[in-house]
Amino acid sequence: MSLPAPGWTAQEVVAHLRSIGTEENRRGMARFGINTATALGVGNVDLRPLARKLKRNHERSLALWDSGIREARLIAFTGEPKEITIEECRRWAGDFDSWEVVDTVSDLFVDTPFWRELIEEFAADEREFVRRTAFAMLAWAAVHLKKEPDATFLPYLRLIDAHAGDERNFVRKAVNWALRQIGKRSVTLHAPALALAQKFAVSSDKTRRWVGKDAAKELSDAKTLERLAARKI
User: Where are the alpha helices (DSSP H) in 96-168?
Assistant: First the structure.
C-alpha cells in the first residue's frame, strides 16, 4: 500500500487502515473505554496524520461512515461541512456508540450552518451518545468558532444547567467540558461560567457537584486567569 494521498477514495482509505491495524492496538483501546466491536486496531497516532493528508470530500465521508468501521468513522470528519445535510447529521448521531467518535465528528458538525439547531435537538434527546454530542459540539464551538460573538454562548449556560444532573458518564463529562470551554473563551464569559460552576459545586446532587467542582477548579486556576487577562489586553 502506497503512502496516503489527498484524493484517496473511501475504499483506498479503508484498505490502508486494514493494512496497519493490529490486535494489540485493539486490546489497548478497550482499556480507555473505546468500543472496539468494529475496530481495526489503528491508533490515533496513525489516524491523525492520515486525516491531515486527506482533502475534504463529502461523498468519501459518507462512504467511510457507512462502512461502520471505527477508524473509518473517525476519518469521516474530513467531510465537507457545507455539503452535509442536517438529516445526515441526525443519521450519524443515531449510529454513535463511542465517546471518541462523538467527539471527533462533533468537530465537523459545528462547522455546519445549522449547528445551533443540532445542539438544541441533541441535548433534548435521551440517548446517551446523542446528548453527549450536543455538549461536545458546544465545547468545540466555544474553542473554534472565533468569529462567533460571546453573546451566542451565554444562553447555553442554561442548557448546561438543565442537564448537569445527568449522571451518565459520557454525558456529565461532556457537560463539564462545555462549561469549562465556555468559561475559558473570554473574560466576558468567564464570570457567568464560573458562577454556574460554583453553584453546581455546592449542590446536593452528586453529579452536578462533580461537574461544578471540576469546572470551578480549572476556571479558577492561575494559568487560566493569566491567559484570559492576556486576551483582554
Answer: 99-109, 115-124, 128-144, 156-163
* DSSP sequence for 195-222: HHHHHHHT-SSHHHHHHHHHHHHHHT-H
* Location of C-alpha cell 490502508: 16
Cell of 73: 468513522
Q: Is the pTM of this model over 0.85?
A: yes
What is the C-alpha to C-alpha distance for residues 155 and 117, in angstroms, rounded to an integer? 13
CA distance 171 to 166: 7
Residue 169 Cα to chain centre, angstroms: 15
Q: What digits encode the pLDDT tens for the residues 109-150?
A: 999 999 999 999 999 999 999 999 999 999 999 999 999 999
3-state helix, strand, coil in the chain (%, to 5): 70, 0, 30
Under a CB-based contact definition with an 8 Å cutoff, are residues 6 and 53 in contact? Answer: yes
Q: For residues 107 and 103, give the distance between their C-alpha atoms in angstroms, rounded to a whole number.
A: 7
Separation between Cα atoms, residue 221 and residue 201, nearest integer Å: 16
Phi then psi for residue 199, to 5 deg, are -65, -45
Cα-based distances in Å from 3 to 13, 14, 17, 75, 163: 10, 13, 11, 16, 45
**pLDDT tens, position by position, 67-85:** 999 999 999 999 999 999 9
Cβ-contact 202, 210 below 8 angstroms:
no
